[in-house]
Amino acid sequence: MQSTVIAPSILSANFARLGEEVDNVLAAGADWVHFDVMDNHYVPNLTIGPLVCEALRKHGVTAPIDVHLMVEPVDRIVPDFAKAGASMISFHPEASAHVHRTVQLIKSHGCQAGLVLNPATPIDVLDWVLEDLDMVLLMSVNPGFGGQSFIPSALEKLRRVRQMIDRTGKPIRLEIDGGVKADNIAEIAAAGADTFVAGSAIFNAPDYADVIGKMKAAVKG
Length: 221
Ligand code: DX5
Ligand code: ZN
Description:
single chain, TIM Barrel, 8 helices, alpha/beta, binds zinc ion
């Protein structure tokens, strides 16, 4: 099992002062910055692209930037995100015609590669590519919006993917995204997640350090 990572999703941050929000959440104990990219095509919402990622790097953000691509097609935008300072790039298999090729493309640009499974996407999509991945990201909401409720079937899915990862013996992260809160993160961790995205639970809280501290304490048990 990998070390615990809390990755606030900046989708719920105040975009009018994004640099300051990211500085504050990192100072409050966040480990990564989760960066949700939506194209109004693969998902019904439109957010941010490589320019904003680059702006955060120029602002001085040195923490890992965890880019979650909800775009179709995927490959065209990968080099731009690598150049913009992405640390890891995750994509949905439904949005790529050649999943293995996209994984190799991400790695060839010096980034870690993740595959994202929607709530109804079967886990057997991992069968022939898992060992090439640095991370599996399980969606516990349907992608497109922050602030949705955690879908409980994600717990069983986490348990099954945790077993698959453990069988490889490789340091592959298991990330969960959607509806993660201080009061459900313990059972999510117990099901096998080591990397936790949380948007509204952190950015809607009055004290970022308080909520991140509660999340880390709950994971430790
Ligand atoms: C949804 C995004 C999530 C989302 C999480 O498509 O991938 O990262 O912003 O937000 P919360 O934690 O509010 O569910
Ligand atoms: Zn996300």
